[in-house]
Specification:
Layout lengths: L1 H36 L11 H13 L1 H11 L1 H20 L4 H16 L2 H11 L6 H28 L2 H19 L13 H19 L2 H4 L20 H19 L7 H9 L3 H19 L12 H21 L13 H31 L5 H12 L1 H12 L5 H19 L10 H27 L6 H36 L4 H5 L3 H40 L9
Helix pairs in contact: 1-5, 1-6, 1-7, 1-8, 2-5, 2-13, 3-4, 3-20, 4-5, 4-6, 4-8, 6-20, 7-17, 7-19, 9-11, 13-14, 13-20, 15-16, 15-19, 15-20, 15-22, 16-19, 17-19, 18-19, 18-22, 20-22
Keywords: Membrane, Transmembrane, Transmembrane helix, Transport
Protein name: MFS transporter
Organism: Aeromicrobium tamlense
């Protein structure tokens, strides 16, 4: 019965992770409409970048803190809390009326969505013995990777019948439904009665502020109801009577939480968690990660590997990281407990994850780019279907890797898997304009995705096996952070490398005036030469990705080589 309940809990957590992962990609199709709602034109795409980077910032920056809290407070309460945060972020995004509110909603969504992963991986370690963790880890990894396939399809299906707002309203509803289903899995010591007055105050406050954001025409144009939307000072909607009522209800809610015998937020229990967590160290690490993310996420690779604000952001990251290290040595309860990641396979898994992210991002970004450049210049759907050949193999590999982990050590399995992906990248680096028309390309893309998928469970398992039970959440968070930071740095560095190859190839092409000279045949030759320069760019990117994959494979063989002393 206990194992059945554990499987049900893991299934809910996995569904939540898959749904949140899909939300990472769901914005791709909705972005143009979201830009219009934010008052941006298609020509201002760079200004819309925070809609995506905001989600990424929330997804990564506070992940270590959430992982540590899950170690101290429990997996299920953190999962429920993250789903509520995800739902709140979805509501704010759906009701967003300008760039600031949409980005704020995406940031909060990212915090909730990213926070689901560490407690879920830790939950597997809590529930299954080391020799049986492989398959559950593989299944969770597969569900997470399916998000990259399901996300755009989910967005397209909703947009076919509704608007981009509906995507996020549905996100909120699904997030709350999964959270409600998780309530029955709370440990007995976390079960508590409902603070009905507190809940009503929270709902009323949220309702008022939501109306402030939406400004429904039926209410704003009403003779009486419209008065609630008229600012009492200035012209901000946040200074209207309705907004002031919302603020008052929030104050009443805070007072209720401070005085209720069994408050809705259980702040006394969370206060104990705060006392056992180095919040200053967590803040410093969050600032450091945030600065690194913004440095690379907002970069324009055509100009530099890092953004133009790097001159400020990188020193901030360095100072914050220094403060975090200092706090780790002197705090009574450091965010990363001392000696918690000293085992070679533990920190080795994090290093492998970084290079896996650096290689993986090249496939996600540049395979569709290659397809658009060669076989589908005017068909975005066909280019996406080419990437699908790679993506569908990822979850298959994740499950297969989890099963193989019962029979093979993590190090050799991971090394072989990533060497397979690296070899496939080397093949891609030789592709020309006709390569995608061959069935061989499908085999190469599927094998590359399979390799990445095979590595998911072994890397996670090696980390969890060589860390103590009371830091599994934190360790899992650091693994995810390493992969995401690797993706950011990887896409920036590889794109810059590719552009250098492109410019080098272009320099060898005669000027169009000389080459064309009024001849249609010569002009076609010029266009073909420019296409070949673009292919040279992508060949350089795939070569760099192969190097990253081989580095990850070598690190896995060297650092994850200890086999667990499994009990059969």
């Amino acid at each position: 019965m206990k194992e059945l309940a554990s499987r049900g809990l893991l299934a809910l957590a996995a569904v939540a992770i898959g749904f949140a992962a899909a939300d990472t990609y769901v914005v791709v199709l909705a972005l143009p409409d979201m830009m219009t709602a934010a008052g941006l034109t298609v020509a201002e795409l760079q200004r819309a970048a925070p809609i995506i980077s905001g989600f990424l910032l929330g997804y990564v920056a506070v992940l270590p803190l959430i992982g540590r809290v899950s170690d101290l407070r429990g997996r299920v309460p953190v999962l429920i809390g993250c789903l509520v945060i995800f739902a709140i972020g979805s509501v704010i995004t759906a009701a967003g009326y300008d760039l600031t509110t949409i980005v704020l909603g995406r940031l909060i969504q990212g915090i909730g969505g990213g926070g689901l992963i560490p407690p879920t991986l830790a939950l597997i370690a809590d529930t299954w013995p080391a020799e049986r963790r492989g398959l559950p880890l593989g299944i969770v990894g597969a569900v997470q990777e399916l998000g990259s396939v399901v996300g755009p399809l989910w967005g397209a299906a909703i947009l076919a019948f509704g608007t981009w707002h509906d995507i996020f309203w549905l996100n909120a509803a699904v997030g709350l439904l999964i959270g409600a289903a998780l309530l029955r899995h709370r440990p007995a010591e976390h079960e508590r009665g409902w603070d009905v007055p507190g809940l009503l105050l929270a709902l009323l406050a949220g309702g008022c502020l939501l109306l402030v954001m939406l400004e429904p025409e039926r209410l704003t144009t009403g003779v009486t109801s419209g008065l609630a939307f008229l600012p009492v000072a200035g012209d901000s909607r946040w200074l209207t009577p309705l907004a002031l009522v919302g603020y008052g209800l929030l104050v009443a809610f805070a007072v209720r939480q401070a005085t209720a015998a069994r408050p809705l937020l259980a702040w006394r229990a969370w206060g104990e968690v705060a006392r056992q967590t180095d919040l200053w160290g967590a803040t410093a690490l969050t600032v450091a990660l945030g600065a690194v993310i913004l440095t690379f996420a907002s970069a324009e690779p055509e100009q530099a590997v890092v953004s133009e604000d790097a001159i400020v952001l990188l020193p901030v990251a360095a100072i914050a990281l220094g403060l975090f290290v200092w706090r780790g040595r002197h705090a009574a309860h450091p965010l990363i407990p001392r000696d918690s990641l000293t085992a070679t396979p533990a920190w080795g898994s994090i290093a492998v994850s970084f290079f896996v992210g650096s290689a993986l991002i090249a496939a996600l970004v540049d395979i569709p780019f290659f397809a658009r450049l060669t076989i589908a210049p005017d068909d975005q759907l066909e280019a996406a279907l080419v990437l699908l050949r790679f993506l569908v193999a990822l979850p298959v590999g994740a499950v297969l890797g989890g099963w193989l982990l019962r029979h093979l050590p993590a190090g050799p399995l991971t090394g072989a898997a990533l060497a397979l992906s690296g070899g496939c990248f080397l093949v891609m680096a030789t592709w020309d304009q006709k390569s995608l028309e061959s069935f061989t390309s499908t085999i190469v893309l599927a094998a590359c995705g399979l390799g990445f998928g095979l590595a998911i469970a072994p890397v996670n398992a090696a980390l969890l096996e060589h860390t103590a039970d009371d830091v599994h959440g934190l360790a899992s968070a650091l693994l995810v952070v390493a992969r995401m930071v690797g993706m950011l740095i990887g896409i920036s560095a590889l794109t810059t490398l590719g552009l250098r190859a492109f410019h080098s190839a272009v320099e060898r092409i005669p000027p169009i005036e000389e080459l064309c000279n009024g001849s249609a045949t010569a002009c076609r030759a010029y266009n073909g030469a420019m296409r070949d320069a673009g292919i040279a760019q992508l060949q350089a990117v795939f070569t760099g990705a192969a190097v990253a994959a081989f580095v990850a494979a070598a690190l896995a063989l060297l650092l994850l080589r200890r086999r667990a002393s499994f009990s059969s």
